[in-house]
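In response to a reviewer's request, we include the raw inputs and outputs for one of the modeled complexes. The three entities were modeled together in a single run.
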Amino acid sequence: MSAAAEHTHAESHDEHDHHEHYEPFWKKYIFSTDHKVIGLQYGFTALVFLAFGFFLMMVMRWSIAYPDRAVPLLADWPWFQAWLDDGGRVTGDLYNMFGAMHGTIMIFLGVVPLAFGAFGNYVTPLQIGAPDMAFPRLNMASYWLYLLGGVLMFVSFFLPSGAAKAGWTNYSPLATTTDLHYGDLFWTGQTQWLVGMVLLISSSLLGAVNFICTIINLRCRGMTWMRLPFFVWAMMVTGFLLLLAFPPLEVAAILQLVDRMAGTSFFVPTGLNVSGMAFDAAGGGSPLLYQHLFWFLAHPEVYVLILPALAIVAEIIPCNTRKPLWGYKTMVYAVMILGFLSFLVWAHHMYITGMGPAISTFFQTTTVLVSIPSVVLITSLLISMWGGSIRFNVPMLFATAFIPMFGIGGLTGLPLAFSLTDLHLHDTYYVIGHFHYMVAPGTIFGLFAGIYHWFPKITGRMMSARLGQLHFWPSLIFMNGIFAPMMIQGMAGFHRRAFDGGKAYEQLSNQVFAEPNSFLSNIAEMLNVIPADAPLRMIDLNIVTSGSAWLLAIFQVPFIINVFLSVFIGKKVTSDNPWDATTLEWATPTPPPHGNFASEPVAYRGPYEYSVPGAARDFSPQFEDDPSALSEGSAETAATTATEPGTR
Amino acid sequence: MAEVTHDFSKTKRTYAKVGIALGIFTIITVALGLFPPLDVGPPGPTPGDFLIGLSVATCKASLVALIFMHLNHERGLIYKLMLFTSILAFCLIVVTLFAGFDPIVEQYETLKTTGGWLLKLRPQ
Amino acid sequence: MEIPYEVTPRRDTGLYNAKLGVWLFLASEVMLFGGLFSAYVFLRLGVQDGVDNPWPWGVSVHKNFVWLGAINTVVLIASSVGVVFAWVSVKERKWRNYQLWMYFVVACAAVFMCIKMVEYNSKLNHHHGIKLVDNSVMEGVIIDDTDKIRFSGEKVTFGLHSALPAVLRDLDDGEFPVFKVIDGPEETIGTELASESAFKSWFHENRRTFKKNLAEARKRYRAELAEGATPAPIEVKGTATVEASAPFSLHGDPRKILAHSDTTMNYRDGVKIEGKLISDDVIFEVHEVDMQLVLPQDQRESVVWEVISDDSAKQSFFTQQSKNYQEMAAYYEKRGEVIPEKMIRGRFLNVYYVHVPAEGSEGGEGHGEESDKHAAVHTSETNPAAGATGGEGHHGPSRHLVVPREQVKFMGNHGPRYGNYYAIYFTMTALHGIHVVGGALVLLYMVVFGKKLYLKNPEHLANRVEVGGLFWHFVDLIWIFLFPLMYLL
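The model returned the following C-alpha cells for the whole complex.
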C-alpha cells in the first residue's frame, strides 16, 4: 500500500465521517467519549498542572537559595501578600504548603495523567487496533473526576487555611492535627487534599479498569499477546498497579478524612500532645498504619510514573534505530515481574519508623530484587541501539537521554534500599535527588519524547526540529544542574525540609565543596555567585540548583512555542506513517477519526519487525500483509487466527 | 438476538438451595457468636473462636462467589485475577501486622504490639 | 462506530467487556476492603493493655442488636437470591418475573438501610460515655446537650484576617443579637449591625480594607528594607470587638474551645467572647462504670466514687469484684494455672454499676425499655447487690449525676469518635451502606428503564443484570465478613 493511496483513503473516510455524524463543538471536544479527544484533554490539563507545579517549585527554590531576600515579582500579588512575611520573604508555612502541593500536583495531577491518561488513552487503542476504549463513557467520567479533583486541589490554595501543608505524603498525626482550629473544617486545605485524593483515586480506578479491559478484550484480529507492542504491555501492568495499589491509599484517605471530620483516632495514638495540650481524641490509633497504607500505594506509584515513559522510549528506540527491540519477550516478562515485585517493597520507605529487623530484612531483599527486572529493561533498551543506524531526531534525543538519567536514578536508589545506609541518607537532599532523577529527567524526558514522536499522528504536522534541539540540550544540562548538586548536599547531610535551605545550620554546614581560586570557584565568580577567592561551600550549591531550575523553566518556552505553532504552521506530513514505524497506530488516517481505522485492522506480525532480511523496505508494519516478509512461524499464526472467526 | 435455548429449572433449584444453605450458615454464625464454643473461661472470643467464626464466613462467601457470581462457570482469567488480588490483599494485612515484629526483643515487642495474641498462637 | 464484545463474549477470553470490567472493579474493591480489614486487624491486635481503650467484644457492644444484624444478613442473602432469579427471568424472557424480583431486591436494600439507621440512631443518640481523668469510664446518657458549655455572651473579639468567626454558628437558634462595633477599624466604631447579613457584609468589607492596608504597609516596609534602613514595624489593626445590645446565649462545642473561665471563652480560631458562664457541668445519667484502665490498687481512690457519691454503689462494686476474683481463681486453680496479669487488670474483674431507670423519667424515652433489659441482665446474672443500688435509683435525683468538667478527660456518644471499635464499625458499615445504596440505585435503574433494552436485545439486558448482580453479590459477601467481625467476635 503506497503512502499516496493511504492518504486518499483517509481523506475519503474523513469526508464520510463528517457528513454522517456531525457533532457540535462541545460534544466533540468537551464532553467527548472519543479516546483520542479524552487523551488530549488529559494531556493539556496535565501540562497545565505540570507548569503550575514547576512554578511552586521555583518559589521554593528562591527561599532555599536566598532565604533572607524578598521574593521577586510576586511579593505584591494579594494572595502572596498574606503568606509572605513583612519583608516579603517566604515563610515556613508557605514553603510547607508549596512543598506538599508541588509533590501532589506533579505526581497525581501532572505526570500520571500525562503518562497514563494522555498517552495511554491516545495510543493504546490505536496500537491494539480497537475502535475506542471498552467503556467510552467511563473514560469520560474518569477525566472529569480527575479534573474535579485537580480543581479542588487548586482551589484549596485560596482557602483561609491555604492548601495542605503536611508534605505530599500527608503523614498522620501531623496531617490529622493541622489546621483543626479553622471553624469550617471541611474547607481547609488539609481536608480538601483528602477529598481531592479520593476523587483522583476514583478517576484512576475507572481508568485502570477501562485500560485493562480494552487491552484484554478489544485486540484486533491477529493481535496475539506476543504481538502487542511493548507500550501496551507496560500500560497493562501500569493499569494493574493503579487498580490494586490505589484502593489502600483510598482507605488511608478515607480514614484520615474521618479522623479529621468526625474526630476518630485511626491514626492518632493514645496520649498525643499537640502544641503542649492533650489532643482531644480517644486515642489507640497507629500512625504507622497510615504509612503502611500510604506506601502500599506510593511505591507502585513510582512504577506508574516510570513505566509509561520507559514504554514510550521502547517504542521510539526501535523506530529510530531501524532495528527490532532487543529481547522483546524478556522485556515483557521483566515488566510483569517488576509490576508484581513493586507491591512487595513498600516499607523500604519506612526503615526509620522503628520496624523490626526481620521485616526490614524482608523489604531490603525484595527491594534489591526489584532492581533486577529494572536492569533487564534498561539493558535491553541499550542493546537495542547497538549497531543500529540511528536517526537522532528530537524524540530520539530525548529517548537516548532517558536511559542514562533513568540509570542514575536507579543506581542512586540502591543505597536507600539498605536500611543501614538509609539511616544516614533518609530525609536528606540525596533522596530528593534520587527520585527526581527518576521522574524529572527520566519520566518527563520520556514524555517529551512521546509528544515529539506522536505529534505528527495527532495533528498531521511535524514539530520544529530546531526548536526541539533548543528545548532538549539546555533541558538536559539544567536538569543535571538541579539534581546532581542535591546528591552531593544530601550525602553531606542536608535535610530536605529546611525552608531556608540549611541557612539556620550554616555554621554546621560549612563543608567546603571547592577550594578558593579553584576551577569551580572561578566559574562561580564568573556566574556572579560568590567571589573566586572565597571557598565554595556546600550551602552555595543551593544557588547552583536554584539557578538551574529557573533556567530550566526558561528553556521550556521553546517547547511551548513549538507545540502551539506547529499545530498551525508545522510542516505537513506527507504520509500516515512519517517515521516509517511498524505499529498499528500508524495505519490510521491522520489525524485518526472517531472510530480510528478506515477498515478493520489486522495484525499480521510482531510489533518491531525492522530491517527484516529479504524484505523490500527496512520496516515491515504489523498491518501490512506482505507474505514475502513473513517468517514461517508468524505466517502460521496469522493463518490460523484469520480462519477463526470468533477470535477477532 | 438469541432466543431461550437453555432450561433454567435446574439452575433455579440450585439457587434456591444455596439461598437456604446461606440462611442456615447465618444461624450457625449467630449461635457461634452468642455461645462461643471455645469460650469456657473468661468472656470474649479466643483466637479459636475467630478461626471458627471466619471459617463459617468463608464457607458462605465461597458459596456466594461460586454459585451466585458464576465463578464455577468462569475460565482461568478471572481466577488468575482474583488469585493475584488475594495475594496482595493478604500481604497488605499480614506483612503490615508483622511490621512490629522484632526477633531481638521478640517477647517484649510482640507482647506490646499484639496484646500477647501472637505469643499465644505460637507453638509452646 | 460500534465497540465489539458488548453483548457476546470474546472467544479466547470467554468474557464480554462489562463482565471483565466489573471483575476488575471487584478486584480493586477487594483491595479497598482488604485495606480496611487490614486496619481492623492492625488496630485490634495493636491495643496495648492498660494504655489504649480496650477493644470491646462485638456482642457486648451490640447487646440487643445482634438480632438486627442477623436479620440484615438474611435480608441481604435474600436479595442476592433475588438478583440471580431476576437474571434467570431475563434469560427465560419473563419480563414480569424480572420486574418482581428486581423490585424485591431493591426493597431488601431499603429494609437493610432502615435497620442500619435504627442501629446508628441508638448508638449516636442513646449511648454516651465519659472518661474521667483517672481513666475510669462511665457509660450512660448525657442529658440535654450538657456536654456543650453554656455561656451568656456580651462582647465578641475576633481577627479580621481570615474567615468569619465560627462562633456565630454556635448561637442558639433565632437569637442573632444586634451588635455594635466598639473597637476595630476607626471609621466604623459605633456602627450598629442589626442582622446576620449586615454583620457579614461589614466583616467582609473590613477584611478587604485590612488586607489592603496591610499590603501597603508591607510594601513600605520592604522598600525601607531594600534601602538598608531598619524599617519601623508594621502597625495595622487587625482585630475588632463588637458588643451585643442584649446578652446572647450560646452552646460552645468544647472541641472548638481552647479555654474558658467564668467571664471569657477563647475559641481555637482566635475568637474571644466575654460575658458570663452559665454552666459547664455535665449532667449525666449513669448506667455502668468501667474500671479496666485503672490500676487495681488505685480503684478504691478513683474519682468515680466522688462523682457518684453513693457509698452503696462503691460497696457493691468491690464485693462483686472480690467475688469475681474468687471465681476466676477457682477456674484457674482447677486448670492448674496462675491467673494471668492481664486477667487481674483487664475487664474481667469489672462489675457494672446498674441503675434501674425511674418510671417516666426524662431522657429515658426511646431507650427506657432497653435499659430495663440491661438492668435485668446484670441484676440476674452478675450482681445481686445491684438490686439494692437500683432500688435507690428509684428515688430519682442520684441517678442524674453532675460531673464537673475538670474531671472529664474525654466524652461523647458511641459515635465513631468514642474508640477505635466504634470508628471502624461506623466507617466500614457506612462504606458498605454506600455500596448497598449505589448498587440498589443501579438495579432500580435497570428495572425502571430496562424495558426498551429488553425489547431490543434481551441478552444485553441479561448481561447488565448479571454484571449488576456480580457487584451486588460482592456487597453481600463483604457483609458476610462484616457481620461476625463487627457484631459477634
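As requested, we also summarize the result in words. The two ends of chain B are 66 Å apart (CA to CA). The interface with chain A takes residues 77, 84-85, 88, 91-92, 95-96, 98-104, 109 of chain B (CB under 8 Å).
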